[in-house]
Amino acid sequence: MKRKFVQIVTWLGVMAALTLAAMGVWVIGWRGDQSTESLKWLQMLQTCATFLLPPLFCAWLWDEEHKPFRWLQMDRGAKWQIFAIAIATMVCAIPAINLLAEVNSRFLDWLLANSDWSREAIEWMKAREEEATVLTERFLQADSFGGMLVNIGLMALLPALAEEMSFRGVLQGVLSRQRSEVSHIAIWVTAFIFSAIHFQFYGFVPRMLLGAMFGYMLAWTGSLWVPIVMHFVNNGVAVVSYQISAVSHQPSETSIADTIGAGDTWWVGVISLAAVCGLLWLIRVLSIDKNP
User: Fold this and answer.
1) So where are the chain's domains?
2) pTM above 0.90, yes or no
Protein backbone atom coordinates (compact mmCIF):
# COMPACT_ATOMS: atom_id res chain seq x y z
CA MET A 1 0.00 0.00 0.00
CA LYS A 2 2.84 2.39 0.90
CA ARG A 3 4.51 1.69 -2.44
CA LYS A 4 1.31 2.45 -4.34
CA PHE A 5 0.92 5.72 -2.44
CA VAL A 6 4.48 6.72 -3.31
CA GLN A 7 3.88 5.84 -6.96
CA ILE A 8 0.72 7.95 -7.17
CA VAL A 9 2.41 10.91 -5.44
CA THR A 10 5.39 10.60 -7.80
CA TRP A 11 3.14 10.48 -10.85
CA LEU A 12 1.10 13.49 -9.70
CA GLY A 13 4.27 15.43 -8.85
CA VAL A 14 5.82 14.83 -12.26
CA MET A 15 2.50 15.68 -13.90
CA ALA A 16 2.22 18.98 -11.99
CA ALA A 17 5.82 19.98 -12.71
CA LEU A 18 5.62 19.26 -16.44
CA THR A 19 2.21 20.93 -16.75
CA LEU A 20 3.56 24.12 -15.19
CA ALA A 21 6.56 23.93 -17.51
CA ALA A 22 4.27 23.56 -20.53
CA MET A 23 2.22 26.56 -19.42
CA GLY A 24 5.43 28.55 -19.08
CA VAL A 25 6.54 27.60 -22.58
CA TRP A 26 3.16 28.67 -23.99
CA VAL A 27 3.13 31.98 -22.10
CA ILE A 28 6.67 32.80 -23.27
CA GLY A 29 6.22 31.55 -26.81
CA TRP A 30 2.68 32.76 -27.52
CA ARG A 31 2.35 35.45 -24.84
CA GLY A 32 -1.08 34.31 -23.76
CA ASP A 33 -2.59 34.78 -27.23
CA GLN A 34 -6.22 33.58 -27.28
CA SER A 35 -6.39 32.80 -31.00
CA THR A 36 -7.50 29.32 -32.04
CA GLU A 37 -4.05 28.44 -33.37
CA SER A 38 -2.41 29.50 -30.10
CA LEU A 39 -4.93 27.56 -28.01
CA LYS A 40 -4.31 24.47 -30.14
CA TRP A 41 -0.60 24.71 -29.33
CA LEU A 42 -1.53 25.05 -25.66
CA GLN A 43 -3.75 21.97 -25.93
CA MET A 44 -0.93 19.96 -27.48
CA LEU A 45 1.65 21.12 -24.92
CA GLN A 46 -0.68 20.41 -22.00
CA THR A 47 -1.68 16.97 -23.28
CA CYS A 48 1.95 15.95 -23.74
CA ALA A 49 3.10 17.42 -20.43
CA THR A 50 0.15 16.25 -18.34
CA PHE A 51 -0.76 12.86 -19.78
CA LEU A 52 1.94 11.63 -22.19
CA LEU A 53 5.37 12.30 -20.66
CA PRO A 54 4.66 11.53 -16.95
CA PRO A 55 3.57 7.91 -17.66
CA LEU A 56 6.69 7.31 -19.75
CA PHE A 57 8.99 8.73 -17.07
CA CYS A 58 7.26 6.97 -14.17
CA ALA A 59 7.04 3.63 -15.98
CA TRP A 60 10.74 3.89 -16.82
CA LEU A 61 11.43 4.60 -13.15
CA TRP A 62 9.26 1.77 -11.82
CA ASP A 63 10.23 -1.00 -14.23
CA GLU A 64 13.12 -3.11 -12.94
CA GLU A 65 14.82 -3.06 -16.33
CA HIS A 66 13.71 0.50 -17.15
CA LYS A 67 11.42 -0.62 -19.94
CA PRO A 68 8.46 1.81 -19.74
CA PHE A 69 6.44 0.19 -22.52
CA ARG A 70 6.56 -3.14 -20.72
CA TRP A 71 5.32 -1.60 -17.45
CA LEU A 72 2.52 0.21 -19.33
CA GLN A 73 1.60 -3.03 -21.13
CA MET A 74 2.38 -1.48 -24.49
CA ASP A 75 5.01 -4.05 -25.43
CA ARG A 76 2.42 -6.53 -26.65
CA GLY A 77 -0.49 -6.51 -29.03
CA ALA A 78 -3.61 -8.62 -29.29
CA LYS A 79 -5.28 -10.86 -31.81
CA TRP A 80 -6.34 -9.02 -34.94
CA GLN A 81 -9.88 -10.28 -34.36
CA ILE A 82 -9.94 -8.44 -31.03
CA PHE A 83 -8.89 -5.17 -32.63
CA ALA A 84 -11.51 -5.61 -35.37
CA ILE A 85 -14.29 -6.30 -32.86
CA ALA A 86 -13.08 -3.45 -30.64
CA ILE A 87 -13.39 -0.99 -33.53
CA ALA A 88 -16.83 -2.36 -34.42
CA THR A 89 -17.82 -2.01 -30.77
CA MET A 90 -16.98 1.70 -30.74
CA VAL A 91 -18.93 2.33 -33.95
CA CYS A 92 -21.92 0.39 -32.60
CA ALA A 93 -21.68 2.28 -29.30
CA ILE A 94 -22.41 5.71 -30.83
CA PRO A 95 -26.24 5.53 -30.39
CA ALA A 96 -25.84 4.12 -26.86
CA ILE A 97 -23.48 6.96 -25.92
CA ASN A 98 -25.97 9.50 -27.26
CA LEU A 99 -28.81 7.87 -25.33
CA LEU A 100 -26.85 7.85 -22.06
CA ALA A 101 -25.72 11.44 -22.62
CA GLU A 102 -29.34 12.53 -23.08
CA VAL A 103 -30.42 10.73 -19.90
CA ASN A 104 -27.47 12.31 -18.05
CA SER A 105 -28.35 15.77 -19.40
CA ARG A 106 -32.06 15.49 -18.64
CA PHE A 107 -31.38 14.36 -15.09
CA LEU A 108 -29.14 17.38 -14.42
CA ASP A 109 -31.69 19.72 -16.01
CA TRP A 110 -34.38 18.18 -13.79
CA LEU A 111 -32.22 18.82 -10.73
CA LEU A 112 -31.67 22.40 -11.88
CA ALA A 113 -35.43 22.95 -12.18
CA ASN A 114 -36.55 21.13 -9.05
CA SER A 115 -33.82 21.28 -6.46
CA ASP A 116 -32.70 24.48 -4.76
CA TRP A 117 -29.77 22.94 -2.88
CA SER A 118 -28.06 21.77 -6.07
CA ARG A 119 -28.92 24.76 -8.26
CA GLU A 120 -25.56 26.52 -8.00
CA ALA A 121 -23.61 23.33 -8.62
CA ILE A 122 -25.70 22.39 -11.67
CA GLU A 123 -25.45 25.90 -13.08
CA TRP A 124 -21.67 25.73 -12.68
CA MET A 125 -21.61 22.37 -14.47
CA LYS A 126 -23.76 23.75 -17.29
CA ALA A 127 -21.48 26.77 -17.70
CA ARG A 128 -18.40 24.50 -17.92
CA GLU A 129 -20.20 22.33 -20.48
CA GLU A 130 -21.06 25.34 -22.66
CA GLU A 131 -17.51 26.68 -22.43
CA ALA A 132 -16.08 23.29 -23.43
CA THR A 133 -18.53 23.03 -26.35
CA VAL A 134 -17.60 26.47 -27.68
CA LEU A 135 -13.86 25.73 -27.44
CA THR A 136 -14.26 22.31 -29.04
CA GLU A 137 -16.16 23.79 -31.98
CA ARG A 138 -13.42 26.40 -32.43
CA PHE A 139 -10.81 23.64 -32.53
CA LEU A 140 -12.81 21.50 -34.96
CA GLN A 141 -13.19 24.21 -37.59
CA ALA A 142 -11.04 23.30 -40.59
CA ASP A 143 -11.23 24.57 -44.16
CA SER A 144 -9.06 21.87 -45.73
CA PHE A 145 -8.32 18.17 -45.64
CA GLY A 146 -4.96 18.94 -44.06
CA GLY A 147 -6.70 20.92 -41.34
CA MET A 148 -8.96 17.97 -40.60
CA LEU A 149 -5.92 15.68 -40.31
CA VAL A 150 -4.37 18.11 -37.82
CA ASN A 151 -7.60 18.02 -35.80
CA ILE A 152 -7.62 14.22 -35.86
CA GLY A 153 -4.07 14.22 -34.55
CA LEU A 154 -4.74 16.82 -31.86
CA MET A 155 -8.21 15.76 -30.73
CA ALA A 156 -8.27 12.04 -31.46
CA LEU A 157 -4.84 10.42 -31.74
CA LEU A 158 -2.88 12.38 -29.11
CA PRO A 159 -5.60 12.25 -26.40
CA ALA A 160 -6.24 8.56 -27.03
CA LEU A 161 -2.57 7.72 -26.63
CA ALA A 162 -1.80 10.07 -23.74
CA GLU A 163 -4.97 9.62 -21.67
CA GLU A 164 -4.89 5.84 -21.91
CA MET A 165 -1.24 5.79 -20.87
CA SER A 166 -2.08 7.95 -17.84
CA PHE A 167 -5.41 6.54 -16.71
CA ARG A 168 -5.42 2.90 -17.75
CA GLY A 169 -1.65 2.50 -17.96
CA VAL A 170 -0.57 4.27 -14.75
CA LEU A 171 -3.56 4.87 -12.48
CA GLN A 172 -5.41 1.61 -13.08
CA GLY A 173 -2.10 -0.25 -13.03
CA VAL A 174 -1.09 1.22 -9.67
CA LEU A 175 -4.53 0.68 -8.11
CA SER A 176 -4.76 -2.94 -9.25
CA ARG A 177 -3.57 -5.53 -6.76
CA GLN A 178 -2.19 -7.69 -9.54
CA ARG A 179 -1.72 -6.20 -13.00
CA SER A 180 -2.47 -9.58 -14.60
CA GLU A 181 -5.88 -9.84 -12.90
CA VAL A 182 -9.18 -8.01 -13.39
CA SER A 183 -9.49 -5.48 -10.55
CA HIS A 184 -13.04 -4.13 -10.66
CA ILE A 185 -12.38 -1.47 -8.03
CA ALA A 186 -9.32 -0.17 -9.87
CA ILE A 187 -11.21 -0.10 -13.17
CA TRP A 188 -14.22 1.81 -11.83
CA VAL A 189 -12.26 4.24 -9.66
CA THR A 190 -10.07 5.05 -12.66
CA ALA A 191 -13.13 5.44 -14.89
CA PHE A 192 -14.75 7.83 -12.40
CA ILE A 193 -11.62 9.99 -12.18
CA PHE A 194 -11.17 9.84 -15.95
CA SER A 195 -14.66 11.24 -16.48
CA ALA A 196 -14.53 13.80 -13.67
CA ILE A 197 -11.24 15.31 -14.79
CA HIS A 198 -12.80 16.40 -18.10
CA PHE A 199 -15.13 18.78 -16.18
CA GLN A 200 -17.95 18.07 -18.66
CA PHE A 201 -20.62 16.74 -16.33
CA TYR A 202 -23.48 16.65 -18.83
CA GLY A 203 -21.62 13.73 -20.39
CA PHE A 204 -20.23 12.33 -17.14
CA VAL A 205 -22.08 8.98 -17.17
CA PRO A 206 -21.32 7.86 -20.75
CA ARG A 207 -17.69 9.00 -20.39
CA MET A 208 -17.32 7.05 -17.15
CA LEU A 209 -18.81 3.94 -18.77
CA LEU A 210 -16.43 4.37 -21.72
CA GLY A 211 -13.57 4.60 -19.25
CA ALA A 212 -14.69 1.41 -17.54
CA MET A 213 -14.97 -0.33 -20.91
CA PHE A 214 -11.43 0.74 -21.79
CA GLY A 215 -10.29 -0.52 -18.40
CA TYR A 216 -11.80 -3.95 -18.94
CA MET A 217 -10.26 -4.10 -22.41
CA LEU A 218 -6.82 -3.66 -20.86
CA ALA A 219 -7.51 -6.16 -18.09
CA TRP A 220 -8.90 -8.78 -20.46
CA THR A 221 -6.41 -8.46 -23.32
CA GLY A 222 -3.28 -7.44 -21.41
CA SER A 223 -2.53 -4.84 -24.07
CA LEU A 224 -2.96 -1.09 -23.66
CA TRP A 225 -3.14 -0.77 -27.45
CA VAL A 226 -6.70 -2.11 -27.48
CA PRO A 227 -8.21 0.75 -25.38
CA ILE A 228 -5.96 3.22 -27.22
CA VAL A 229 -7.44 2.15 -30.56
CA MET A 230 -11.00 2.25 -29.15
CA HIS A 231 -10.43 5.71 -27.65
CA PHE A 232 -9.03 6.93 -30.97
CA VAL A 233 -12.02 5.60 -32.91
CA ASN A 234 -14.45 7.27 -30.50
CA ASN A 235 -12.76 10.68 -30.80
CA GLY A 236 -11.99 10.29 -34.50
CA VAL A 237 -15.63 9.63 -35.41
CA ALA A 238 -16.60 12.87 -33.64
CA VAL A 239 -13.97 14.89 -35.54
CA VAL A 240 -14.87 13.44 -38.93
CA SER A 241 -18.64 13.74 -38.39
CA TYR A 242 -18.24 17.41 -37.46
CA GLN A 243 -16.21 18.01 -40.61
CA ILE A 244 -18.81 16.26 -42.77
CA SER A 245 -21.53 18.43 -41.24
CA ALA A 246 -19.47 21.55 -41.87
CA VAL A 247 -18.86 20.62 -45.51
CA SER A 248 -22.58 20.00 -46.02
CA HIS A 249 -23.30 23.38 -44.37
CA GLN A 250 -25.22 21.83 -41.48
CA PRO A 251 -24.72 22.76 -37.82
CA SER A 252 -22.87 20.13 -35.77
CA GLU A 253 -25.96 19.50 -33.65
CA THR A 254 -27.70 17.90 -36.63
CA SER A 255 -24.92 15.37 -37.28
CA ILE A 256 -26.33 11.85 -37.22
CA ALA A 257 -23.35 10.77 -35.12
CA ASP A 258 -24.48 13.22 -32.43
CA THR A 259 -28.21 12.56 -32.49
CA ILE A 260 -28.92 8.94 -33.40
CA GLY A 261 -29.99 7.00 -30.34
CA ALA A 262 -31.39 10.06 -28.58
CA GLY A 263 -34.81 11.72 -28.75
CA ASP A 264 -37.23 9.90 -31.03
CA THR A 265 -34.56 7.34 -31.94
CA TRP A 266 -34.03 6.22 -28.33
CA TRP A 267 -34.82 2.67 -29.36
CA VAL A 268 -31.71 2.66 -31.57
CA GLY A 269 -29.72 3.52 -28.47
CA VAL A 270 -31.21 0.56 -26.59
CA ILE A 271 -30.35 -1.81 -29.46
CA SER A 272 -26.88 -0.27 -29.61
CA LEU A 273 -26.36 -0.89 -25.89
CA ALA A 274 -27.38 -4.54 -26.26
CA ALA A 275 -25.07 -4.96 -29.27
CA VAL A 276 -22.15 -3.46 -27.37
CA CYS A 277 -22.69 -5.87 -24.48
CA GLY A 278 -22.65 -8.78 -26.91
CA LEU A 279 -19.47 -7.59 -28.61
CA LEU A 280 -17.74 -7.07 -25.26
CA TRP A 281 -18.67 -10.62 -24.27
CA LEU A 282 -17.13 -11.84 -27.54
CA ILE A 283 -13.91 -9.92 -26.85
CA ARG A 284 -13.80 -11.42 -23.37
CA VAL A 285 -14.08 -14.92 -24.81
CA LEU A 286 -11.35 -14.27 -27.38
CA SER A 287 -9.13 -12.75 -24.70
CA ILE A 288 -9.03 -15.81 -22.48
CA ASP A 289 -5.78 -16.62 -24.24
CA LYS A 290 -3.93 -13.31 -24.07
CA ASN A 291 -1.19 -14.37 -26.46
CA PRO A 292 -1.89 -12.85 -29.92
Assistant:
1) 1-71, 76-286
2) yes
